[in-house]
Design a protein that fits this description.
about 120 residues; mainly alpha; 434 Repressor (Amino-terminal Domain); rod-shaped; DNA binding; Helix-turn-helix transcriptional regulator; Cro/C1-type_HTH; Lambda_DNA-bd_dom_sf
């Protein structure tokens, strides 16, 4: 299990990796171009450590994009997932509160008589 489990951190890693793959760049190539050690990079994409802003800036330059775009894309993905999780929990809670058989014998009998 990784140390950094926030949706945002996971999405930053995902965005970096997707952009690296889109450019057909190997991890070794990215590490050489950014000066980030290979082991350090692997620790970061596993979530054992976090990328710092200097590293995100260097990665973005090598990948040909603005570092703010990496963070913005990660933020948008994390928010969408967070909203979806919240909606799922709310729906599950709502299901437990509505249209269920009665808790008392009289309520149960009335429920069973419904068409």
């Amino acid at each position: 299990m990784s140390k950094y489990e926030s949706l945002f951190t996971q999405r930053v890693i995902e965005v970096i990796e997707n952009r690296r793959r889109d450019r057909n760049m190997t991890i070794d190539d990215l590490c050489a171009a950014t000066g980030i050690g290979r082991n350090s990079y692997y620790n970061k994409i596993r979530g054992d450590r976090c990328f710092n802003t200097e590293e995100i800036d260097a990665i973005a330059r090598v990948l040909g994009c603005d570092p703010f775009l990496i963070l913005e894309e990660a933020s948008a993905k994390a928010q969408i997932e967070s909203d979806a999780q919240l909606a799922k929990k709310a729906f599950a809670r709502m299901q437990t509160l509505v249209a269920k058989p009665g808790d008392t014998k009289a309520e149960q009998e009335a429920y069973e008589e419904l068409p």
